[in-house]
Amino acid sequence: MKKYQAGSIKNVCFVSHGGVGKTSLLEAVSFTSKSTSRLGKVAAGNSTFDSRADEKNHKMTISTHLGFCEWNDTKINILDTPGFLDFLGEAKAALRVVESTVILVDAVSGIQVGTELVSKYVEESGVPKLYYVNGCDKENADFVKVVQALKDNYGSGIAPIVVPIGSGTGFKGIVDLLKKEAWEYTRDGSGVGTKTTIPSSLEKDVATLRQALMETIAETDEALMNSYFEHGELTDEQIVKGLASGVKAGVLSPVIAGSSLYNMGSDKFLDALIELCPSADSRTEITVLEDSGEKSIKCTESSPAFSFVFKTISEEHLGEINLVRMFSGKIVSGQDVANVGRNSTERVGNMYFLKGKERVDTSELTFGDIGGLLKLKDTHTNDTLADKTIKYR
Question: Where does 175-234 have alpha helices with state H?
Answer without folding.
Answer: 203-218, 222-231
